Amino acid sequence: MATDILYKYLDFDGGMAMLKNRTLQFTNATKFNDPFDCHPALFDYSNVPPNKRNLNPAGFFSKMKYNDMKNYREQTWICCLSKVCDSLLMWAYYNNHKGICIGLNIEAVLRSCQDRFLGYSAPQEAKEVVYRNINDKPDYFRNRPSPSELLLTKAKDWEHEQEVRLIADHPLWANAARDVPKEFYGEDTVDGKEIRHYPRITPDCFESVYLGVNMLPRKKEQIIEIAKDLNPNICIYQITLDPNAFKLKPELLR
User: How far apart are CA 204 and CA 15, in angstroms?
Assistant: First the structure.
């Protein structure tokens, strides 16, 4: 895709961790907040071609292909980014405009990810999400949708996110951190799909930082200090209000 800079919205703690540790978060495709996201039911498996040898009933092939997509989803980890840094709704999601947004040089990010990937398929490009109504779902046997189409289809309700994704199969990263959501801390066993992967990326990946309208002054100072230490050339913006247009405006601080 043509966009050079993509954006990651985070609350204050998440933003501090990303800047301090120089990491990206990859989450299993089954663990997003939208239950339809990457779901196998986004494809229609009912129109099974005639089977001349009649070895198996049509329902067998329909279920088999559904399970293929189910397994593909479970073996995929995704980093979610956005094409915009000034979405009112996205800022509201992350701590009521008290969070931050980090601008990433996507070419540097992809290069950094590929250098640190030990196995299977590293992200090769940033892929835009397509938003549609579920009744538009493609016919699996007639339209031959690609597996990646499953991972890049979301409901129209999410269109404001203008999402772009980095997709990794079976992530095995060099020098990557891993954790699970706090709700699983103390559990003896945790489903492997709950594991989040945090591959380290290089400082040149971090192009800009945007500070939320409602961020406390002392927290702004913390973010600015760590961002400058990470990349002396980073651009830091304060998000401000444009009441005449119901828009957010970034103003360059340095």
Answer: 17
